[in-house]
Design goal:
The structure is a single chain. The protein contains 15 helices and 54 strands. The chain is an alpha+beta fold and about 900 residues long. The strands form 14 sheets. Strands 23, 24, 28, 29, 30, 31, 34, 35, 36 and 37 form a 10-stranded mixed β-sheet that branches. A 6-stranded antiparallel β-sheet has the order 1-54-49-48-47-38. Strands 3, 5, 6, 7, 9 and 10 form a 6-stranded mixed β-sheet that branches. It starts with a strand and ends with a strand. The structure holds alpha-L-rhamnopyranose.
């Protein structure tokens, strides 16, 4: 379908539409007097942090935005002042950047006196607009650094001297959780108190019986613990009293020494350790330090008898003493602790991104069955977190909580949890109502089943609330359209994001896996950036990847690495080049390239080691879970698809070289540029000659959609062969009755390749396909998240019999990238969207679409409607950016600008403002 629009600009909020070619650009500025503009706002530091306690950088990066109501459209200069004195910020005793002529408004490096641990810092910024008019100063932003190095710690790791082991509900023995406490006297009411805290394992900290951070869960999160453990900083000033105080914690093994895939028994037995440093300041200037040391008491006889990430928790009310963390409790029966010195080679550093938090609570939607003392609650949404229950129980009658993502003919379907028990037990001491929410486990579920409650009382929806947990990132996704099923898909994809952004990017949140699989991550990074504020999340995980990279450049399959599958895979390890580059394109932050450049180089060298004459023989998971695989060997499940493994490896080798080359260019590493360029061209040439004949037929093996997708998406075909490759791809799609035949690697490439080939209509066809394999197929079969397999479940045939069958995998959610880049048409021209394109792909399947994309400069908004032959498009261009609007066949049309006729071939370099464009669609094909 094509449109021939007559374009008419009918209105806009902020003055003019610069409807001209680049030549006319200079006449496009606004000849209006600009009064002192309002101050810049939305200040943030680091990778966008606005939570400013315990910051991790000694050299912070500063970002801000131009106020939306300001008359300024562009920034021409900025000035930053940094001080340790709020009242005297004008003196900027730490740093005054002076006036810097630049439109840069994010990720500006601090360049002043070195900052140190605990330091309290104030900063502000002002800007000059396009007419050199200076703004007011922004409000000051205060931030405080965490403990930046191991030297800042006087505390020791502590824990119970003995290890008690328990099993139920897991098949594995695990060290039981520990309870720790210490009393101390505060000489006065503090004016400031900070708790710096972490664990080898998981912790929940308390001051005087009060939970320090009730919504923070599973802290400190998951890093390569043998290299680095993150620490958290909390303000506990108000929790402390003059006189006697208690600081306490409960700790469990978590990812540190709990069951993670198949840790060896030996590692299960390693008990957790706790580290805390409470630093108190008094009005008279004196200070007090309470650190974890020999003076603490410990118990392994608390109510949480068992806790495992995969298997659940066991809680025994008989062992509960509600005052264990308060004053007045006698810890006489508790034991002394062992204390262990800090490890020289394990870095302690402040957490780089928001912890996992309870972000929402959901009410149960319905009770789906209630038979023989077993009741099943349906939350209507597959999700991740823990339940909070308030349930009537009978003394000494165990209450059991099970979880499921789906029901199968009314039955609880838990097969796909594999060996993860995901079951909680509560042993009540007395009859009556109990309240409970697990502390050290999490579940991926939609349904909760309770057994063992007081049968005399009729189950009630209020018994169970779902506490939704994920890394506390802001979800910005707001794509919507005239097609309800498409909107449902968009919603499901966001739930996939919410479910799997669990301190690290997980493949799935429910079975005995839940690992940071690199392949899944590289296909979802960009869409996730369009849907949520996840830059800090990704850049923190990249640090973990760097730490896990082998000396030979090898990138493990999942990060953090635990001993299970110990090799590298093409398409997976390439996360190390793809993610930094994609993040750079979305944010414009060069430091993400600088930080990861050595890793990128290491990985392309590893590719080289795994290649002969530029042709890869690296292992690969292939086009994982491609539908309709042709089974070649007996017993083969076809999980790796039919795209030639060596072709995949070589394509990724070339892609990683290309991205490393691009990074070297941005970073001005000219020596590397020359070398990488030669290697890249060589691999490209080999790719073509080794795998394809003159007519782009494969020399051997099966030609798949992904074969041509890889070549096209990664620019591996020469210009004069692109059209031919596109034809071959389209033919393969047509042969599949306009269905995709792609797995994890091919699927994310479909939309952009087809759009480039001028076949956005085919992208729409694929997205709107109702039959297997397609996205809507899952929705037709009741999906509320994205599935691991195109056919994980069908109403007709039930569950896919394969054990590997997650109903909450984000990988196929990669299509959401095209909701933003295709349907709305928003793509960066320059990194960070300071210059971007809006080229919406219209199609009869949609009469409207709208949404926004958050960029470092503010939100880009696009919405369009098509009614009959009338198109109405609205675009909001954020301050300090420029947009090109690309409409089909625009050059044939007379344009009307501000009521006046104007000629233009393109809508280019449009400045900040709101643009409303009407067009007539002459003919629709
Ligand atoms: C599965 C994971 C993941 C995938 C690997 C190859 O077990 O769930 O999604 O990347 O295998």
């Amino acid at each position: 379908m094509k449109y021939s629009p007559e374009v008419r600009v009918v209105g806009f909020r902020t003055l003019l539409l610069c409807l001209v070619s680049t030549l006319l650009l200079s006449s496009c500025s606004l000849f209006q007097s600009v009064s002192k503009g309002s101050a810049p706002n939305k200040l943030s530091i680091g990778t966008g942090q606005t939570h400013l306690l315990g910051h991790f950088e000694s050299k912070p990066r500063f970002s801000w935005k131009i106020d939306e109501d300001s008359t300024a459209k562009q920034q021409s200069a900025y000035q930053i002042q940094v001080s340790d004195n709020q009242k005297n910020i004008a003196q900027a005793n730490l740093w005054d950047s002076g006036k810097i002529n630049s439109n840069k408004n994010s990720w500006v490096d601090y360049n002043g006196r070195p900052l140190s641990s605990r330091q309290v810092v104030f900063w502000r910024v002002r800007i000059w607009d396009e007419h050199n008019q200076v703004s007011e100063w922004s409000k000051q932003q205060r931030f405080e650094l965490g403990l930046l190095s191991n030297q800042d710690w006087q505390a020791s790791w502590i824990g119970h001297p003995a290890t008690r082991l328990s099993k139920n509900p897991s098949q594995s023995l695990l060290a039981t959780p520990q309870y720790l406490r210490r009393t101390f006297i505060a000489t006065d009411k503090p004016i400031k108190a900070r708790l710096y805290v972490t664990a080898k394992g998981l912790f929940k900290a308390y001051v005087n019986g009060q939970e320090v951070a009730p919504n923070d869960v599973m802290t400190p999160g998951w890093t390569p613990y043998q290299k680095r453990i993150e620490t958290l900083t909390y303000d506990v000033t108000k929790m402390l009293a003059s006189g006697g105080n208690v600081i306490a914690a409960k700790v469990a093994s978590g990812w540190y020494s709990g069951r993670v895939y198949k840790f060896t028994e030996k590692e299960f037995l390693k008990p957790s350790r706790f580290l805390a440093q409470l630093e108190i300041e008094y009005a008279n200037g004196s200070k007090q330090l309470i650190a974890t040391d020999q003076d603490w008491k410990a118990s392994i006889s608390g109510p949480i008898e068992f806790a495992s990430i995969y298997d659940g928790e066991r809680y025994n009310q008989n062992l509960e003493d509600k005052s264990w963390h308060k004053q007045g409790f006698s810890a006489e029966n508790w034991d002394g602790v062992v204390s262990e010195a800090l490890d020289h080679n394990i870095e302690l550093s402040p957490k780089q991104h928001a912890p996992i938090r309870i972000v929402e609570s959901l009410q149960a939607a319905q009770i789906v069955s209630n038979q023989n003392g077993t009741v099943i609650f349906d939350f209507g949404q597959n999700m991740v977190g823990v339940p909070k229950i308030r349930v009537p129980v009978v003394a000494n009658q165990q209450l059991r909580m099970r979880f499921a993502e789906a029901l199968h003919k009314g039955e609880f379907y838990t097969d796909n949890y594999r060996s993860a028990e995901s079951t909680n037990y509560y042993h009540p001491k007395q009859s009556g109502y109990i309240e409970y929410q697990p502390s050290f486990t999490y579940h991926g579920y939609r349904y909760v089943e309770l057994t063992g409650y007081d049968k005399k009382i009729k189950p009630d929806l209020s018994w169970v609330t779902a506490l939704v947990q994920h890394s506390d990132v802001e979800i910005t996704a707001n794509f919507t359209s005239s097609a309800p099923k498409l909107n449902k898909l968009a919603e499901n994809i966001v739930w996939g994001l919410r479910s799997n952004f669990y301190d690290i990017p997980l493949d799935c949140p429910q079975r005995d896996e839940r690992l940071g699989w690199t392949g899944d991550a590289q296909v979802f990074v960009t869409p996730s950036m369009y849907m949520a504020d996840v830059y800090g999340f990704w850049s923190a995980w990249l640090k973990s990847i760097r730490e896990e990279q082998g000396e030979d450049g090898k990138i493990p399959l999942y990060i953090p690495f635990v001993e299970w599958i110990n090799f590298a895979s093409s398409g997976w390890g390439d996360a190390s080049t793809i993610i930094p580059w994609e993040l750079y394109m979305v944010t414009g932050d060069q430091s993400i390239l600088a930080d990861n450049y050595q890793m990128m180089k290491g990985w392309v060298n590893y590719h080289q080691k795994k290649s002969k004459n530029n042709i890869s023989n690296m292992m690969t998971f292939g086009d994982w879970l491609q539908p309709y695989p042709v089974l070649i060997k007996e017993g083969d499940k076809g999980n790796r698809g039919n795209t030639d493994f060596s072709l995949i490896g070589t394509a990724y080798y070339a892609r990683s070289l290309e991205l490393t080359l691009k990074a070297a260019k941005v970073l001005n590493y000219s020596h590397d540029v020359a070398q990488l360029m030669t290697r890249y061209n060589d691999v490209k040439k080999s790719f073509l000659s080794h795998f394809f004949d003159q007519n782009l037929n494969l020399k051997q093996g099966i030609a798949t959609q992904t074969t041509y997708l890889l070549g096209l998406a990664y620019n591996l075909f020469p210009d004069d062969k692109i059209a031919l490759a596109e034809d071959k791809l389209v033919k393969l799609i047509e042969e599949a009755d306009d269905h995709l035949r792609t797995g994890f690697l091919g699927t994310p490439l479909l939309a952009s390749v087809l759009q480039k080939a001028g076949r956005s209509d085919l992208v729409y066809d694929l997205i709107f396909k109702e039959t297997y394999p397609s996205w809507f197929y899952s929705i037709n079969n009741g999906a509320t998240t994205t599935w691991e397999r195109w056919n994980s479940y069908s109403i007709e045939d039930g569950f896919n019999p394969e054990g590997m069958n997650s109903l909450n995998h984000y990988a196929y959610g990669s299509i959401s990238r095209w909701f933003y880049e295709g349907m709305l048409g928003i793509k960066p021209i320059t990194p960070g969207f300071s210059h971007f394109e809006v080229a919406p792909q219209f199609n009869l399947k949609l009469s409207s679409a709208s949404g926004s994309l958050a960029t470092p400069n503010g939100e880009i908004n696009v919405s369009w409607k098509v009614a009959g032959k009338k198109l109405e498009l609205k675009v909001v261009v954020p301050k300090n950016t420029r947009a090109n609007i690309v409409l089909p066949e625009l050059k044939n049309n007379v344009l009307i600008l501000n009521g006046e006729k104007g000629m233009g071939t393109e809508l280019v370099n449009l400045k900040a403002g709101e643009y409303v464009i009407s067009a007539t669609l002459f003919h629709i094909e």
